[in-house]
Design goal:
This protein is an all-beta fold and 152 residues long. The protein has 1 helix and 13 strands, in the order αβββββββββββββ. The strands form 4 sheets. It has a 4-stranded antiparallel sheet with strand order 6-13-11-8, with no helix packed on it. Strands 10-9-7-12 form a 4-stranded antiparallel sheet, with no helix packed on it.
């Protein structure tokens, strides 16, 4: 009742009984802003960007060229959510796709497990799987390339 009316104190007396209710508001103390936390951003499979704390010099970007066995041909299929990559629907079954397989638009190519939910990842292009970039059971990040599909 006191809080609803905006009063800081309410006193009620009835039949010789007196009740006093006071609302105490503790003062809010704000200290300085918390220290910034360094953030690491992974820009792709072969480039890593490290952003320094606010107020520091310009960010440093380290990059390495793709290795010879790392193909960049094809459209990447990206992880829709962070989680665990699974190439097959169950441990004892065949993988959804393998290198060299033809895929169609909407075909399931893998599963990402996130918080005990299995999310099917579908191909957005038709073509041939040229490379699988993640191992079965490996953790993946949001928008991480999972495999490459080369369109005809």
């Amino acid at each position: 009742m006191a809080a609803e009316s905006g009063a800081a104190e309410v006193e009620i007396e009835a039949d010789g009984v007196r009740v006093l209710v006071r609302q105490y508001v503790s003062p809010t103390i704000q200290e300085g802003a918390p220290a910034p936390i360094p953030v690491t951003v992974q820009a792709g499979p072969s480039t890593t960007a490290v952003i320094k704390e606010k107020g520091a010099e310009s960010p440093e970007v380290e990059s390495s060229p793709p290795s010879e066995n790392e193909s960049t041909n094809g459209t990447p299929v990206l992880a829709p959510t962070p989680g665990t990559f699974y190439a097959k629907p169950s441990p004892d079954s065949e993988p959804f796709v393998q290198v060299g397989d033809s895929v169609s638009i909407g075909q399931t190519v893998c599963i990402i497990e996130a918080m005990k939910l299995m999310n099917e990842v579908e191909s957005e292009v038709a073509g041939t799987v040229t490379q699988i970039l993640v191992g079965d059971g490996d953790p993946v990040e949001y928008d991480q390339p999972l495999l490459l599909i080369e369109s005809p």
